[in-house]
Amino acid sequence: MRRTLIIVAPLLTLAVAAHAQTPSADTPAAAAPPASEAPATSTPPASAAPAPSSGAAAGETPAEADSPASTADATAPVAPAAPEKTGVDVARSQPAVGADWPFYGGGSGATRYSPLDQITPQNVGGLERAFVYRTGDMPTGTAKGKYAAETTPLKVGDDLLMCSAKNVLISIDAADGTENWRYDPGVSNDAIPYSASCRGVATYTDPDKGADEACATRVIEGTIDARLIAVDIATGKPCEEFGENGAVDLWKDIGKRVPGWYAVTAPPVVVRGIIVTGAQVKDGQAEDAPSGVIRGFDAVTGAFVWAFDLGAPDQNIDGPPEGETYTRGTPNMWTAAVADEELGYVYLPLGNSSVDYYAGNRSEAENDYSTSLVALDVTTGRPVWTFQTVRRDVWDYDLGSQVSLVDFPAESGSVPALVLPSKQGDIYILNRKTGESLFGVEDFTVASRGDVEPDDLAQSQPTSAYHTLRGPDLTEADMWGFTPIDQLWCRIQFRLANYSGFFTPPSADRPYIQYPGYNGGSDWGSVAVDTEDGIIVANYNDIPNFNRLIPRAEADERGLKPINETPAGAKGGANAEGEGDPQTGSPYAIDVNAGWRSALTGMPCTRPPYGGIRAIDLKTGETLWDRPLGTARRNGPFGIPSYLPFNIGTPNNGGSVVTAGGLVFIGAATDDLFRAIDLKTGKTLWQDVLPAGGQANPITYEVNGEEYVLIAATGHHFMETPVGDYIIAYKLPKS
């Protein structure tokens, strides 16, 4: 139900021998001088010293659990419209991507495509650093080991706008990195859910204000302590008319405030003058978890407009009755939404219910909406259609990617569509007006529903007829090891585990193999789409999890407690997601070995590659090229870097940007390299060594006729890459 990753960094030294035939696509034609790899520090250089703070949808019902999949059962009927709310803007033109990067996903359609073409395959080898800015936000005290900023700045006018890991809002000059202002909302360490993350911000221009008025344009973020913050884009001062002194409390009507259980890590989306936001609910704690409600707020005043509470959509659209809360434990939206301003729809990628690995106690609404994309009418707060990608999800296959809006080149003409990636690897093309799949939905019959709850799991699952990033089912021959003993150990584990292929159900009698794992396919980095040439670029993970349900008696003996029963100040969140999660309220807790790592060396039990990047023809869904992404240079057994440059494919998180110059820019992999890849061939043409992990989405923009490319090198504790506070921009040298 929120961002789920896999443990990664100590990977593969001997992958060279296992994959000696891999082409050396990561050998750059011309490399920039490597950056220092000294550990990041919490003190920015004097030149960048921080300034003082300025102040019924579709899906299965129980009776339908064994029905065959079809396009019809994946889309919901149009819900009856509620009376339109007041204070809603009509559709208006959106800022264009190009010189600016005005939205988290680049343009308003989140394609991560830029029309800039100054940097090309012919000259990218000359790319050099334009500036390095340090945010100064580094983990201290109880925040150590819990930072994963994942930040993607916006570029608006002359400035870059961003949030740090703990929600410090910052504006810097886009040409040289000079700080303009910063606003620190004062988020405390105890608010960190699993990671301190802030993926991005949004902006909104008030059409009723003059350009020189305070907060005529404001920067808006959601915080990990569950607030909406709005500040003036020019000064960083809070917008006093927004909520209470520039802040709206998102804990209202959620229930008892438990720091770290309910948090916002994704940028909000603004459509027709309404801010739409969901929240991350910390996974695996209890069925009685905070609600996954989606809410709309007036972008000028911060006033509540509507709520989409999928457990009580009619009762709670205007908020729950006095003394009650939004429906608890429902699927949430921890990732980024995207909006169609013309239609007035916002597309919500929903996660799972509050207990990921047990379905027996879920309500009908949870079964209908979990792991689904919902199109919501922002003028009413009502769902228009729903498309479900997993029925009765007990695999934590949340929809983590932001969808991309495209005009699809169908035979009968252009169709307003969207690209929907998934963690299990399927990519769907949907009509964004109706939710219908343009390529149909195939029916996959699962081999087993297991012994734990066979009557509550689906007999079949939908898969995409368009494209999948998923590999074939695992075999014992896929087991791999740093040494023959390591490999033998992994093969023994394979034989001891339950495994019936794709959608193997959870089991308690012995471990079970989940492939893809919960960080398979596409996650929050999403995909990029070259809308001119019709090419999707998708980086992906290809690695299993090794799990076991823990009976309640055993969980109690181990002292597994949910976050709301953990004493204040106690250490929490240090384990991988799913590693000893209590799942209170269900008969089982859960143990997840994320990435299925060997107990002997810490290396994955399956052979590489563990991650890749692929170009796909948008019109046909055919693969144009596919290659591993990531070298072994920072990975090895026992967590010891091998420093080997061989391209073996590491797990990766964070997406790419595609330009009209014919390039793909991406960090993401655990080797701390930032790459430029030829869009036509998949070959790496340039790379730079980052001072910390590049688990963030890059951007590109223009200043004074010069094209810049930028990435946040802020690292990721769960990916085990070095944590830093670097914002690094590149451009070509002046001739």
UniProtKB/TrEMBL annotation:
Pfam families: PQQ (PF01011). Residues 101-709 form the Pyrrolo-quinoline quinone repeat domain. The keyword Iron does not apply. Its cofactor is pyrroloquinoline quinone. Keywords: Oxidoreductase, Signal. GO terms for cellular component: membrane. It comes from the Bacteria. Residues 25-84 have a biased composition (Low complexity). Residues 25-90, 557-588 are annotated as: Disordered. CDD domains: PQQ_mGDH. Residues 1-20 form the signal peptide. SMART domains: PQQ. One of its GO terms (molecular function) is quinone binding. Belongs to the bacterial PQQ dehydrogenase family. This is Pyrroloquinoline quinone-dependent dehydrogenase.
